[in-house]
Amino acid sequence: LKSEGDETKGSMRTVRLDVTSQESVQKAVVFTEMHLSGGLQLWALVNNAGFFALNGPDDWCSLEDYDQSLKVNTLGHIRVVHAFRHLLERSKGRIVTVTSATTRLPLAGACAYTVAQSAIEAYTNALRHEVRPFGITCHIIELGIFRTDFIDSASLKARLNTSWEKLTHKKKAKYGEEFKDDCEFQLNFS
Fold first, then answer.
1. Catalytic residue set
2. Per residue in 136-180, pLDDT tens?
3. Which fold has domain 2-147?
4. pTM here?
5. N- to C-terminal Cα separation, the chain
């Protein structure tokens, strides 16, 4: 494997970008096109941007919570596909979309995240049929839960507590502190 990897040195480049910004995505396209010289082509687009929105039960979530998750986890992926598609058509490349196992096994308190991840899976599955005539393939990788900074329990608890603090007194009374504490206890998976 090492010798095979040595043969590919210099042929893979990563680009950091903000998928919620059309300007950032366009800069990434320009960067990519600059590096595609001498017959080089873009063979794969890997959509791996994600925002793990764990805000508590749906009843605690605002439309802004859903909007934030959809902007990154769904619309950001679509924005990147639209921007790079012409390069993938040339190479007959592939679109790899990283989603979450929550599309099959939703987590309580992660409705906004699950909705956005399910939407991008549906988009990728529909897109697969539309791009096939152009030689592009679509692939979905569903990740489970791994201990990373992305889902450290301190930041998840902070988000949960932020949602709790935004609730009306009536909603806090409806759920009670014990319910909130149980939600925090369930976050110890990370």
1. 113
2. 999 999 988 666 665 667 777 888 888 899 999 999 999 998 888
3. Rossmann fold (3.40.50)
4. 0.85
5. 32
